[in-house]
Design a protein that fits this description.
heterodimer; A: 239 residues; alpha+beta; 5-stranded mixed sheet; 16% strand; B: 550 residues; alpha/beta; Ubiquitin-like (UB roll); 4-stranded mixed sheet; 24 helices
Chain lengths: 239, 550
């Protein structure tokens, strides 16, 4: 660990907090029990900054910045709960619901889904944006796991955990825009993958019902993401 | 290579030019080439040979002369005349005209018109005058003299100082002060630094950078080498889109020639400066024009942006400090170093210095490439230089800045063209595409076109841009199909605000601009297409959920 990193003090939602200059706003907020919603972020994986739910306002900066990848600085004044931010967060979650086919009532992750929990927390009761209802495939070729594109929110946690922790880089993203898909190897069925070790880390950290264990019924797919900080710690200073 | 050798090459080249009484310049840039100017050139060559004029007449291919709508263009130096719409069959008449010292009036393209006289050419000074495939011609036009001047008489810091004094701002669109950026990279700590030229010009209707690369590639190489000296880099990359095969070919030729003469490579001009330039081809993604996505693409990763900060000046290509500028920015550097920053700063307005190239397209008589001093009015560009709107139609709007810009209506035609004025009316300078629309254009359809572009070019990384552009496009289509109500329009405006404020990179942050400006100036066109509300109640996304979080 680099010992020369200075310690800084700043304000988050009016509260005085102190931290190391190499910490992110999200790190410090969590340390100080200030809740900032996240989806693509996962402790132990590299920052991605793509779901835009952790956007915060910083005094003197005219753009909203993602708390998960923005480093703290001396004298910063961060606001995490303004009305404007709440509105955008609700709209973004609605965007995700409208993008693909998230039907909670028949989903194996019902009740254990981060997207669903977030919607509950943001008190989203219904969606005004028209649903897109795209026709999407799923891959049940693997003996143990299943990939259902209908539930995928493209957070790329699976891509990052496979690359950064497992070291296999089985997952990646193909296509662009709304046609983006997570793919296995060179867009092959999961069972044919030459690189997948079958470790199941991707399934454990998937926030929704996109990656699940086979043999689970509705609402039976409970996930375990607690292994990740431990693994990261054991690997030392991996980044 | 020494200064004496450089002078010698220049002198020999000028001498051989002087020997030729007649010089025929045939435009060989993409616009005229598509009209078979290569056949015109070979036909002229054959005719010159047949007439026995080989010793005193030289036919050479040059870069873009600007007035693309009148191509293929041929200019004759001895008669000071330019011919337009030349066909291979016209060759005998043109060559006979040379012998008789009489121009072919039938083909004459008037050059005393505002299109030519009102331009101020700095970036384009050699375009249409030199053969882009011969380094000797560039050297004869004072080429690489600025690089030598910087290396021989200035320190890196003094070079940055001159660029700062010039007031040059990034020509890629955002207008970040170039000197400031150079200063940041030169001061950034790191043994390895990179210089990148962004030639991933992708705005619909924009072709300035392509023309510069096709017409005067050495100017960009020289600008990059000066930048490398100023910031302390030894490797450069030109990221150019693969859809520009001619530009790529000429760049490759130019790099090879520059390395052969020792103005690129190791120990440039006998100094410790080593600088090598490699070309990287884009694979057809618009978002790779965004600097962090471009860097990812050069690294061999998926071309998608990452959050800034850190900015590339601090941690760019392979995490090293990286200077990334656009083609036109680098093309401005040699004249700035040659003539000094103060000379450049004397052109233009208080906050926007120098000149800017624009590609005129759409409903305008003189389609083509122009360079004008900053601060000229839109009216001068469109009516004077551009020759007005064809078929006696009425002007409606001009779109600047491509899909990130906005539509500017008639009431702002007398506004000066500079970075700040354009952003004040909701548009941006952009890279220089100017699309002119007449009264027959539907502004809602224009907004839909650009939204479709952003939707299909979104990389898919962040949610607001990936999903928001799709919904905005669907709503615009619904409005055009006369199926939308006032509620839909309100939803569209909410989405515009959200996508603009929350997207990760410039593509998403500016994607709503065409909608926002058309709504601002042509709202009645939207209103006319709306149908009665079905009265279902709710008014928008945000209101549907409760306003507080426990």
């Amino acid at each position: 660990m680099n010992v020369s990193v200075p310690v800084v003090t700043l304000k988050i939602d009016g509260k005085d907090v102190s931290g190391r200059a190499d910490e992110t706003i999200l790190d410090l907020a969590r340390e100080n029990k200030i809740h900032i919603p996240t989806l693509c972020f996962l402790e132990g994986l590299s920052g991605w900054g793509a779901c835009r739910l952790c956007l915060v306002e910083i005094k003197g900066v005219n753009k909203l910045l993602p708390a998960c990848v923005t480093r703290v600085a001396q004298g910063m004044e961060v606001s995490t709960t303004s009305e404007r931010l709440q509105k955008y967060r609700r709209m973004i979650v609605q965007m995700l619901f409208s993008e693909r086919n998230h039907v909670c009532s028949v989903c194996v992750s019902n009740g254990h889904c981060e997207l669903q929990n977030l919607a509950v927390k943001l008190q989203i009761t219904h969606i005004d944006i028209p649903y897109r209802y795209p026709t999407l495939p799923f891959d049940s070729s693997h003996d143990l796991f299943r990939l259902d594109h209908n539930r995928c929110i493209l957070c790329t946690r699976c891509v990052r955990v496979c690359d950064e922790i497992e070291g296999a880089h089985t997952w990646d993203v193909s296509g662009r825009g709304v046609d983006s898909r997570v793919i296995i190897d060179l867009n092959q069925p999961w069972a044919d993958s030459q690189t997948c070790t079958g470790c199941g880390k991707c399934v454990s950290i998937c926030p929704t019902g996109a990656l699940t264990r086979k043999g689970t019924g509705v609402a039976e797919m409970e996930k375990d993401i607690d292994f990740l900080p431990y693994l990261t710690r054991m690997r030392g200073s991996h980044r | 290579m020494t200064a004496e050798e450089l002078d010698q090459i220049a002198e020999e080249e000028r001498e051989s030019t002087r020997k030729c009484r007649h010089r025929l310049h045939v435009c060989m840039a993409a616009g005229c080439l598509s009209l078979h100017s290569d056949q015109v050139k070979s036909s002229l060559e054959a005719q010159v040979k047949a007439s026995g004029l080989e010793s005193e007449c030289r036919v050479k291919g040059v870069g873009c002369m600007g007035l693309c709508s009148a191509g293929p263009l041929v200019s004759v130096s001895s008669q000071d005349v330019t011919y337009k719409e030349v066909t291979p069959e016209d060759a005998p008449e043109i060559v006979q005209g040379l012998q008789a010292a009489k121009a072919v009036e039938r083909l004459r393209c008037p050059t005393d018109v505002p299109f030519f006289t009102r331009q101020k050419r700095i970036v384009l000074e050699n375009c249409g005058a030199i053969d882009p495939e011969r380094i000797e011609e560039y050297i004869a036009a004072d080429g690489y003299a600025a690089l030598h001047k910087a290396l021989a008489t200035m320190t890196g810091a003094q070079t940055v100082e001159q660029v700062s004094r010039s007031g040059l701002r990034g020509r890629g669109g955002a207008g970040y002060p170039t000197g400031l950026k150079w200063g940041m990279v030169s001061k950034a700590s790191g043994a390895t630094k990179y210089v990148i030229c962004n030639a991933d010009e992708g705005d619909p209707g924009a072709f300035m950078d392509r023309s510069v690369l096709e017409s005067d590639p050495h100017r960009v190489l020289e600008g990059m080498a000066i930048a490398a000296y100023a910031v302390g880099a030894s490797q450069g990359y030109i990221y150019v889109r693969a859809e520009y095969p001619l530009a790529v070919k000429r760049l490759k030729t130019a790099i090879r020639q520059a390395e052969r003469l020792g103005v690129l490579g190791n120990s440039i001009f006998g100094t410790p400066l080593n600088f090598k330039i490699d070309i990287r081809l884009g694979a057809g993604a618009f978002v790779c024009g965004e600097e962090t996505a471009l860097i990812a693409s050069i690294e061999g990763l998926r071309g998608q942006p990452r959050p800034r900060p850190p900015f590339p000046a601090e941690a760019g290509l392979w995490d090293a400090p990286t200077l990334i500028n656009n083609v036109e920015t680098f093309a401005n550097i040699p004249p700035i170093i040659r003539n000094g920053g103060d000379w450049y700063a004397s052109i233009g307005t208080a906050k926007s210095k120098g000149t800017k190239t624009f590609a005129l397209a759409g409903k305008i008589n003189n389609t083509g490439l122009i360079e004008v001093p900053m601060g000229i009015t839109l009216r001068d560009i469109i009516y004077d230089i551009g020759g007005g709107i064809p078929d006696g139609k009425k002007f409606k709007a001009v779109q600047t800045g491509g899909p990130s810009g906005g539509c500017i209506p008639e009431q702002f035609l007398d506004m000066p063209v500079d970075y700040d004025s354009l952003s004040k009316v909701g548009s941006i300078m952009g890279s220089g595409g100017m699309i002119i629309m007449d009264e027959t254009s539907s502004m809602v359809d224009v907004a839909r076109f650009f939204m479709e572009f952003c939707m299909s070019e979104s990389c898919g990384k962040c949610v607001p841009c990936r999903v928001g552009t799709v919904h905005m496009h669907d709503l615009l289509r619904k409005i055009i199909e006369r199926k939308a109500s006032a509620r839909d329009l309100a939803l569209l405006e909410e989405l515009c605000d959200m996508v603009k404020s929350t997207s990760l990179c410039g593509l998403g942050q500016s994607a709503p601009n065409p909608v926002l400006t058309t709504l601002r100036y042509f709202r009645h066109e939207y209103d006319e297409l709306l149908v009665q509300d079905d009265g279902a109640g709710a008014t928008g996304v945000a209101q549907s959920a409760k306003e507080t979080v426990p």
